[in-house]
Amino acid sequence: ARGLMKVGDKWLPREEAELVKLGYRKYKGKWVSKEEYEEARSKWDAAYEVQTAHYDIRTNKSEEIADELGKVAEADYEECKRFYGGKEPKLSGKEKMTLYAFATYEDYKKYCVETHAEAELQAAGFARSDSNVVVGWDKTGDKQTFLETMAHEAAHLYYFRAVASGGGASWYMEGMATQFEGFRKEAGAYAFDRRSRSRIWFLKQAAAAGKHIPLDQLVAGDALTLINSDPEKALVFYSECWGLVYFLTHTENKGLLAAFEKFRESADRGGRPSLQEFIDLGPLEAEFLGFVKRL
Question: Among 86, 172, 185, 228, whose CB has the most other CB atoms within 10 angstroms?
Fold first, then answer.
């Protein structure tokens, strides 16, 4: 086209095309360098925004993370749908679930204070049953971990909206949500196997050192209380919750499979059953620790 140059799949005026090739971006009517653009978008009030079929996503981490979050969130949604037997979130009208992915602790802290969620200040993120917004922050500086945090919190919200709005016992809620940290990118798409690599590592280390949490204490524990009182034990708690749910949904022991399915049916109806009502924790602990050694 006369006077135009093609950049990617777009035809642009020659001067603009040259700027784009040099890495400049048009932002609020001005051409700015890549560094200036990224600095501007790192502020929460100018964060990157992505809309997908089921989510509104906002992050001030990077444009790359915004794009990856969109892909992870939709893959997470489909995996949740499979895991929960086809149940989908019940939202009003065209409302979507919202993910806030903060680049810094300062951004996250400000949100916690503004929403009266100070109890969550030591956490990497949270979801509440009374809100369609879930949040997380880049606590470790690791891309995969950040994406896993957001998938974890999105899975909590999915459960609240599709299964039981009131939630359930802490070990069960965290055990279910951590299943959705188990994914990897393959051929440009995200695939879930529910095997959380970081949780496996912490679980095996704790079990090998004899520092795992006995199951009677695990099922009575509370994740947020541990985050605020004993962060190291909280890591073991989350990892063991992941492992217990993964074991009970993959064991070759048909009796355990059936018993856990009955527990889930009761819990997912909004009840607060104890695992002990369905499974003897003594024999379960022995089988579970054997499974951990084989991971």
Answer: 172
Strand ranges inside the chain, DSSP E:
4-7, 10-13, 25-27, 30-32, 48-51, 55-59, 97-102, 125-127, 133-137, 183-186, 189-192
Question: 3-state class of 192 per DSSP?
Answer: strand
- Give per-residue pLDDT as tens, 60-100: 999 999 999 999 999 999 999 999 999 999 998 889 999 99
pTM, two decimals, is 0.92
Pairwise CA distance, residues 80 & 86, whole Å: 8
Q: By the 8 A CB rule, do 125 and 153 touch? A: yes
Q: How far apart are CA 143 and CA 59, in angstroms?
A: 13
d(CA 142, CA 145): 5
151 burial level (CB within 10 Å; 0-12, 13-18, 19+): buried
Q: What is the pLDDT of residues 22-31, one digit of tens each?
A: 888 888 888 8
